[in-house]
Specification:
Blueprint (H helix, E strand, L loop, with lengths): L9 H17 L4 H4 L2 H21 L4 H27 L6 H26 L5
Length: about 120
């Protein structure tokens, strides 16, 4: 079954939703973190969905598609690292938010990994 749009991909839907939520949470960071770590986490989280979209646009070329999905996976790992840092330095006001985001990004990373494996096997291309 082929996908008509990147918007049909569950990995895109989750990545986009999380990027919006992380953006909103990042704006509540303490002023000293708002522009440094806040900017980093916003860019990393938005990079996930952006790389899924760019890879999907290149899906005709399997290696290109996989390359951008790997970039998305790497940005997912980077986002988790930023969340963990913010949690450890007590910059996130709500600890439940950080735990929720870590769990959701871990889920997304697993989904991306499975999707990459499917594309490598020739499915979904």
């Amino acid at each position: 079954m082929g996908f008509l749009s990147y918007k049909d991909l569950e990995i895109y839907k989750l990545a986009h939703k999380l990027a919006v939520e992380v953006h909103q949470i990042s704006l509540t960071l303490p002023k000293f973190e708002l522009y440094e770590e806040g900017s980093q986490i916003r860019r990393a989280s938005k990079s996930i969905s952006a790389n899924i979209v760019e890879g999907f646009g290149r899906r005709r070329y399997k290696a290109e598609f996989i390359k951008y999905l790997v970039y998305a996976h790497s940005s997912c790992d980077e986002t988790i690292e930023h969340i963990e840092l913010l949690k450890e330095i007590d910059s996130l006001k709500n600890k439940d938010d950080s735990d929720k985001f870590i769990k959701e990004y871990d889920k997304l990373a697993r989904m991306l990994n499975k999707f990459i494996q499917s594309v490598e096997k020739g499915h979904l291309v």
